[in-house]
Amino acid sequence: MNNAPPRADARAEMPRGFARFRNILAACIATRLAVDTTTQLFFPFLQTVALGLGMDIVVLGRLVSLRSLAGLSAPLFGTAADSYGYRRIMRLSLLLTAAGMFLLGSGAGIWSVVVGMIVSGAGLTGFLPTCQAYISARLPFAQRARGIGVLEYSWALAGIVGLPLMGFLFGRFSWQIPFFVLGGAMLAGWVLIGLLPEATAGVPVVDPERARRREAARKRLRSRSFTPLLVSLPPLRAQTVAGLFDLGPNWRAALAVISANALFYFSQVHILIAHGAWLETEYGLVPETLGLVAFAQGAADLCGSVLVSLITDRIGKKRAMQLGMLGSLLVYLSMPLINVGLAPVIAALVLLRFVFEYGIVSAIALISEQAPDRRGKIISLSVALNLLGSTFSGFTGPWMYTRFGVWGLGPVAAMGTLTAFVLLTVWGRESA
């Protein structure tokens, strides 16, 4: 029998129990509340911000897509997190997001919007998957959906608390104030994440030269000397870039799962990016009322995340994701038919958020075990694909709505979700 003590990365995978784990979860949820409110800000308030900037929703939708396009940097953040620690990358990401929000709120012109979208998009891209990887590294797979489900309460709380507050600020003050409030919240999160213990669980390093460079980089990070760190980084080579997309022996199933997830996400954002304009244009809702709708959607998100934490580990992550897709598909198909009054429209949007949240949070747990030794990388790559899909939806959602109304929303989303379901069902696997 081998009585040797477990390695550091093995200890990170050991069950800690939620009693010891709740302080970490609480800090991550509090920070994610600000991050998720920022992520969702343009969904209900696209037209409000467009009016403040003097743009129409199609133009602003395209600018929001720049924020999503920055998601292509996610594999870089994921690889760096696996190498240098999740906590450091989360804090760097929060600083980037704060800078982007201050630029967006400055109202300094079109270039401040463009740069603010790109910088905040990079920050959001860096934080979200790294936080998920950080939590995943500290929980065994048998409890992973429970932990991820609790973490994703933050997305729901953003709708319950964050977006109604933003609606109040938009309505009572100015379109700029919410951006400054969220930028300050990112700085507070930077302090809070700095109090957490580190956790790393990446690909084992076998190359001595690579190991030497990583250790030198860690020392310079600890000394906060970033110029030598940049000089010490290895040159960008073709094999380095290819390594960002190396998903290991389970690559086919992993690629199927994250691609299906991206299509599923695209379908939802295609609706979300235009639903505020839909409610304002056809039913006369104002920012404060849109905040109340966001509250109801946030409550639905919370129910979906709670359901994940209660049953997904038992019924299986893949099956749970499939159920979320099927439920979303039914709502998408019904949208043109229920657009006869405010009550059925809001009911459909709330139901959609519930079934989508159940599927998408289950997908996070499913993705986290497709390549356990590359967890930061694969979760980040998944987020990059999601945000690439979100980039397209920034173009398609507002444009399709202005041209075809609700018929340009529901059927398009249904096609994307059906494709995702087939992809997951045929090639997806429960774990590596």
* Helix run count: 19
Helix and strand sequence:
HHHHHHHHHHHHHHHHHHH
Overall geometry? globular
Largest sheet: none
Structural class: mainly alpha
| Helix percentage | over 70%
Low-confidence stretches: 1-18, 201-207, 224-234, 236-240
Task: Give the overall pLDDT as a whole number.
Answer: 80
Distance between the ends = 27 Å
Strand content: under 5%
Tally of DSSP β-strands: 0
**Radius of gyration computed on alpha carbons:** 21 Å
Q: In words, what does this structure look like?
A:
This protein is mostly helical and 432 residues long. 80% of the residues lie in helices and 0% in strands. The longest helix is centred in the middle third of the chain and has 33 residues.
Keywords:
single chain; 432 residues; mainly alpha; 80% helix; disordered N terminus
Question: What's the short story on this structure?
Answer:
This protein is mostly helical and 432 residues long.
List the helices and strands and how they pair.
Elements: H1 8-13, H2 17-40, H3 42-53, H4 57-69, H5 74-84, H6 86-106, H7 110-137, H8 144-151, H9 153-172, H10 177-193, H11 208-222, H12 226-232, H13 238-243, H14 251-283, H15 287-315, H16 317-338, H17 342-367, H18 375-404, H19 410-427
Helix pairs in contact: 2-7, 2-9, 2-10, 3-4, 3-14, 4-7, 4-18, 5-6, 5-7, 5-18, 6-7, 6-10, 7-18, 8-15, 8-17, 9-15, 11-12, 14-17, 14-18, 14-19, 15-17, 16-17, 16-19
